[in-house]
Design brief:
Blueprint (H helix, E strand, L loop, with lengths): L1 H14 L11 H16 L8 H5 L7 H10 L5 H5 L12 H15 L4 H9 L1 H24 L13 H4 L2 H33 L7 H13 L11 E2 L5 E2 L1 H29 L11 H26 L10 H23 L6 H18 L4 H18 L12
Antiparallel strand pairs: 1-2
Helix pairs in contact: 2-6, 4-6, 4-10, 4-16, 6-7, 7-8, 8-14, 8-15, 10-15, 10-16, 11-16, 12-13, 13-14, 14-15
Protein name: Tricarballylate utilization 4Fe-4S protein TcuB
Keywords: Membrane, Transmembrane, Transmembrane helix
InterPro entries: Citrate_utilization_prot_B, NarG-like_sf
């Protein structure tokens, strides 16, 4: 019934001359559309992941559908090695690589402001490290000027963090960066959601769909290769390493964020300012989160450097590695800072850690962090769409 109503609305709009022409596809988008037409005729990989069931609900692939499906793809590589039309076949079907190229394009298309998205995509690793180093140097100079000499950088400070940077100063430095990242990412995701919702039935969210999507996000369900054995990385051998490293990174980041949130509650609600000692909750959460984040990002760096070029978009490596590097630097500098409390190494380590954290949050809306948000939105829309009648195969639902 919903499909009939949609067709009726489209026919009425067409008769009134109200149909807005579809935006032209980029070369990467046109290539994905070409390959999906071939996949739709074959359907050998239909049970591999969420992409292929979503594909079978479509006969054509406009831009919004392509953006939705590109972010639904987890780049596991299973379909590439199962495909009879993969290179060197003349059809040259490589869904993981083609999807990765469009997915990278969406990070730029939906970035706010767009210029920052393009800059980070081209120079992600260099920009990330340069920004972290620049911010750390700025903080070092602030400490030197405040302490009236370079010797202050190699002195133990009994006052801890706040002996170097008062609490209100840290808030004034980090609050604008955090709010900027939240605003920029929120505006981009809102546009993405508005574009893909009509392309995925337009039906509203439901509790079962939300629960299913949350389960897929939290368990990284589609990084199992569709058979539970994991993703291909260097060759066609399956490994669960990508899934495990993503889990360590994802939950490590959440634990670190939880530690900061709990410390904020301690400070403002309980009147207990930092630093904290074991076994306080902020210390436990931060330690476990930092260790998990360091291990996860080290594993992802190794996997990324060794990944076969057919499994992804080589042009995105600077962006991928920039995000991984900032996460690793944030985690390891935080752990080192924890170990160096009360020592002469505290000032330099604190500046390095704060610079890495500020650089991380400043670049969050423009790098691989955004893919987690866009992918979650796509999984949610997929969970909604699959519960609607199939518009091209009503008898199968």
């Amino acid at each position: 019934m919903q499909s009939l109503e949609a067709l009726t609305r489209d026919a009425r709009a067409l008769a009134n001359g109200d149909i807005v022409p579809a935006p032209p596809l980029s070369a990467a988008e046109a290539e994905v559309a070409r390959q999906l037409q071939i996949c739709n005729a074959c359907r050998y990989c239909e049970g591999f992941c969420a992409v292929f069931p979503a594909m079978t609900r479509r006969l054509e692939f406009p831009q919004a559908d392509l953006h939705f499906m590109a972010n639904l793809c987890h780049n596991c590589g299973a379909c590439l090695h199962a495909c009879q039309y993969a290179p060197p076949h003349e059809f040259a079907v490589n869904i993981p690589q083609a999807m990765a190229q469009v997915r990278g394009q969406t990070y730029v298309d939906y970035a706010w402001p767009p210029a920052l998205g393009r800059l980070y995509q081209r120079n992600g690793l260099t920009l990330s490290l340069a920004l972290a180093a620049g911010l750390a140097l700025f903080l070092v100079l602030a400490v030197v000027l405040q302490g009236q000499g370079w010797a202050v950088l190699w002195q133990a400070h009994s006052g801890g963090f706040y002996g170097l940077f008062p609490h209100n100063l840290l808030v004034s430095l980090f609050a604008p960066v955090f709010l900027w990242a939240t605003l920029a990412l929120g505006l981009g995701v809102r546009r993405f959601w508005r574009d893909i919702t009509p392309a995925t039935s337009g039906a509203p969210l439901s509790a079962p769909a939300t629960t299913e999507a949350a389960d897929a996000v939290l368990r990284l369900r589609y990084l199992d290769g569709g058979h539970g054995e994991g993703c291909a990385n260097e060759d066609d051998a399956y490994t669960l390493a990508r899934r495990r490293c993503h889990h360590l990174t994802f939950y490590g980041f959440l634990l670190c964020f939880a530690a900061t949130s709990v410390a904020t509650a301690y400070h403002y609600l309980l009147g207990l300012p930092a630093p904290y000692d074991l076994p306080s909750l902020p210390k436990l959460l931060g330690g476990l989160g930092g260790l998990s984040l360091a291990l996860g990002t080290a594993g992802l760096w190794r996997l990324n450097r060794r990944r076969h070029p057919d499994h992804g978009d080589a042009a995105q490596k600077p962006m991928d590695l920039g995000f991984i590097a900032l996460l690793f630097l944030t985690a390891t500098s935080g752990l080192a800072l924890w170990a160096a409390r009360g020592s002469a190494a505290l000032p330099l380590l604190l500046c390095l850690h704060l610079g890495a954290v500020m650089a991380l949050f400043a670049t969050l809306p423009y790098g691989k962090f955004a893919h987690g948000i866009f992918r979650s939105a796509s999984l949610l829309r997929h969970a909604v769409e699959k519960r609607q009648p199939n518009p091209i195969g009503l008898g199968s639902d």
